Amino acid sequence: MNNIIVGFDFSAGSAYAVDLTIDIANRWQSDIRLVYVKKDGEDEEPVREEIERRNAGVAHLLKGIKLEYVIREGKVYEELAAQALEDEALMIVVGTHGMSGFETNWIGKNTYRTITNSPVPVLSIREDFDFHKALETIIVPLDSTTETRQKVPFAARMAKTFGSTIHLLGLYTSDSKDIRGLVNGYVDQVEKYLEKYEVKHVTEFVEAKKNLTVTTLEYADKVNADLIVIMTEQEKALTSWLIGTYAQQMLTLSKHPILSIRPEEISQAR
Fold this sequence. Notes:
The chain folds into two domains: about 5-125, HUPs (Rossmann fold, 3-Layer(aba) Sandwich), CATH 3.40.50.620; about 135-270, Rossmann fold (3-Layer(aba) Sandwich), CATH 3.40.50.620. It has about 270 residues and is an alpha/beta fold. It has helices at about 10-30, 45-60, 75-85, 105-115, 150-160, 175-195, 210-220, 245-255, 265-270, and strands at about 5, 30-40, 65-75, 90-95, 120-125, 135-140, 165-170, 200-205, 225-230, 260. The chain is about 40% helix and about 20% strand. β6, α5 and β7 form a beta-alpha-beta unit.
């Protein structure tokens, strides 16, 4: 179907996720599948009534696309991944850090598991992000890992869709000439790729010897980024003073939307 999946739990964050997904889906002419994962024994009828009421409220925003929903039961991250596979989805969108009057509020705490289990890219957005701001600036961090370049095709698609500028951020994590040479080479390859597809971009190199997450987010704050595109596995050997993986740290600390791509998703990102 090549539609876009939205995880929904009635929180403010997930409602904002629907709004942003409508904008993206209109531009891609992709249908939207809203997914609600109910608790064991939860009554579906009030859930259906509220979802249908909300969907009717945004129907006027749809431009030749459909907004449908499905109610599933199970573990949230497993059900979102399963629906993405069934629909051959382009992407999953989830909101984070929301508060829910329905006391479901499962999106935030399931975001990382959704990312690590998803067969497609996952866009996570916080409810305090300024959704009225145009998506002008996309950060693409590049390190010395082979997988780091795999996020570029999907990032380029987002940039072309919104007319955004990609900021290539070359991350030097070591004084080693070999490591720095890899970063330089990967950045050069990506620059050529973006030039080929006429994607606006700028490049900057920064020292990131202490922590990749902090360095990336400091740069994102400096340029007022609208999106950061990362791999779910990155620079595994780097010693960090923060507990958890790069992706976990980014999700926890970033106030900017995060688009997470697993290494094997390269074929879907094209």
